[in-house]
Specification:
The chain has 335 residues and is an alpha+beta fold. It folds into 2 domains: 181 residues, Distorted Sandwich (Acetylcholine Binding Protein, Chain: A), CATH 2.70.170.10; 119 residues, Up-down Bundle (Methane Monooxygenase Hydroxylase, Chain G, domain 1), CATH 1.20.58.390. Helices cover 35% and strands 30% of the residues. Strands 1, 2, 3, 5, 6, 7, 9 and 10 form an 8-stranded mixed sheet that branches. β1 and β2 form a beta hairpin. The N and C termini lie far apart (83 Å).
């Protein structure tokens, strides 16, 4: 009983001191530290999760934590205190990417932590979608650098010096994103020009290195398309005297390739330009059309008594057409 009473008395005596130490400072929230000199503001960004990548709208869904530090000598002596962010001067940073982020810490939980020598630490977490501005011309063999840029508000462009905080910048090992490999992140300071002729904004940019996993499209699209095109190569093994049968095989392969293309249209991103996969499909269908043309030419040669020459062309096409298909596809991927 005496021990409890003693603890209660000590707590009562210590309460005023704690309240005095962590009392709200009498500072103007629009008055930055540094006596007019630019304030060094460290910015770190932590990618906690990437939930998806929207190709057509060029957005990524992300769970992001922003870690901001600066020094305010007016807060020396308040080490360990947690204060509302609205009670002191705090840097006002804005996301350059158009976004729809939901902030996790607002109102009473929007606080800063004071550490030694007046060092202030502030963390904010947001989840939602932000613009990624990535092109799909190399789809599905594309790699991207998703940039997330922070910049001061216009009124603080000359009072803040943004410094990348490398130690507090990283990406989680386990991400909830399908079809992508996030190989790492980096952070750097730089300039961002919003429009031609305007002064650049000082920014800190987080870069997420991402690579699409193309296995689905390789096995579900290209392998099956290769079999459809290979069906048209039967033309080169049928005697050219039976050119009606050759043309029938070619027409069947052509219709199958077109139907296959239409069936896949719902799984491919509807963009206003051709991707690598689109070009590969166009090239494959074009070769099917060329095989029909070859059957017509060989048939006319047989009708003119040049069957040996027609057979020689068929034998050459047995090698030329597979080389054209695979070589064309390889060239599209490597360029």
């Amino acid at each position: 009983m005496m021990i409890c009473t003693l603890i209660a008395c000590l707590t009562t005596l210590a309460a005023p001191a704690l309240a005095q130490t962590c009392a709200l400072p009498d500072l103007r929230t629009d008055d930055p530290p540094g006596n007019g000199a630019p304030v060094d503001v460290g910015v770190g960004m932590i990618v906690l999760d990437v939930m998806g990548v929207e190709d057509v709208s060029q957005q990524i869904e992300i769970d992001l934590s922003v870690y901001v530090t600066w020094t305010d000598e007016r807060l020396i002596g308040m080490e360990g205190c947690r204060l509302p962010a609205t009670s002191i001067w705090t840097p006002h940073l804005r996301l350059v990417n158009s976004s729809n982020l939901r902030l996790a810490f607002i109102n009473a939980r929007d606080q800063v932590t004071i550490r030694e020598n007046g060092e202030v630490h502030y963390a904010q977490r947001g989840t939602g979608r932000i613009s990624s501005y990535h092109s799909l011309r190399r789809f599905p063999f594309d790699r991207h650098n998703f940039d997330i840029r922070l910049t001061p508000v216009v009124s603080e462009r000359t009072t803040i010096n943004l410094i990348p905080d490398v130690e507090n910048t990283w990406i989680a090992n386990r991400l909830n994103v399908e079809g992508w490999t996030m190989s790492g992140v980096s952070i750097a300071a730089g300039d961002y020009i919003l429009r031609d002729g305007a002064a650049p904004f000082k920014t800190v940019a987080l870069t997420i290195r991402a690579e699409r996993n193309p296995e689905f499209f390789v096995y579900r699209v290209l392998v099956l398309l290769f079999l459809v095109v290979g069906m048209s190569w039967v033309i080169f093994w049928v005697p050219p005297s039976r050119f009606e049968f050759q043309i029938g095989i070619g027409a069947t392969a052509m219709l199958t390739a077109i139907a296959f293309n239409l069936a896949l249209s719902g799984q491919l991103p509807p963009v206003g330009y051709l991707t690598i996969l689109d070009k590969m499909m166009v090239w494959a269908i074009f070769l099917v059309f060329l095989s029909i043309i070859e059957a017509l030419i060989a048939g006319r040669m047989v009708m003119k008594g040049r069957e040996k020459e027609a057979l020689a062309i068929d034998r050459a096409c047995r090698i030329v057409f597979p080389v054209l298909l695979l070589g064309g596809w390889l060239g599209l991927v490597l360029t």
